Amino acid sequence: MPTFLVEGRLLAMERADLMDVQRAVIEACARLSSQGRAVRYLEGIYVAGDGRHLRLFEAVDEATVRRVNEVTQLPFERIVNVLRLDVPLSTD
Fold first, then answer.
1. Where are the beta strands (DSSP E) in 1-92?
2. For the domain 3-82, what is the CATH code?
3. Number of Cβ within a 10 Å radius of residue 14
4. pTM for the complete prediction?
């Protein structure tokens, strides 16, 4: 499945708030997937200094990722298709 990065801003978030956001995203993904729109939340990164929130998904298409963010009412500035590069375990 393609991988998508969602970029948005969530100002003044504490760890507990971010955990609530993550839980809501995971639940929205599960609901959409059960309706036949395959989507999986991979991870999130919060940059506290500027409130930037990055969310990484695997999904059938961009529209499905957009729907997850609309359902959870999370603000986003853009959604882009990305190539995920996993770090090799070791070259030794």
1. 3-9, 39-47, 52-59, 78-82
2. 3.30.70.3090
3. 9
4. 0.88
